[in-house]
Write a structure and sequence with these properties.
There is one protein chain. It is built from six helices and two strands; from the N terminus they run ααααββαα. The chain has a two-stranded antiparallel ribbon with strand order 1-2. About 55% of the residues lie in helices and about 10% in strands. It starts with a helix and ends with a helix. The chain is mainly alpha-helical and about 100 residues long.
């Protein structure tokens, strides 16, 4: 749903009509699609926490081990579906999936 709102906003900014094809407009505006923007914001917050620039209450959430010159974050077990979406679980999961 948020992606639809972003698409409509991009059309309004550029001056396209409602039924015009969006095409490369998001790239021209340098806007990330919503899914990737959320991932970027989460990873930026994890990076700040690991480097001592984040809030202290978030920095204390992470436990990590240094394996072969890369930082691997411990992913806690969760019971509920809401736990899967928490920062404590999704942050390390995204961080560990980076190449």
């Amino acid at each position: 749903q948020l992606q639809l709102i972003q698409n409509a906003a991009a059309k309004a900014v550029v001056g396209l009509y409602k039924h015009d094809h969006l095409g490369e407009t998001l790239k021209e505006l340098h806007w990330l699609p919503i899914k990737f923007r959320i991932q970027f914001k989460l990873l930026l917050l994890v990076y700040k926490c690991l480097n001592g620039l984040g809030p202290s209450y978030l920095m204390s959430m992470f436990r990590y081990a240094d394996y072969s010159h890369s930082i691997y974050l411990y992913e806690p077990r969760v019971i509920s579906h809401y736990g899967e979406r928490s920062f404590e679980k999704s942050g390390p999961k995204l961080w560990n999936s980076l190449p």
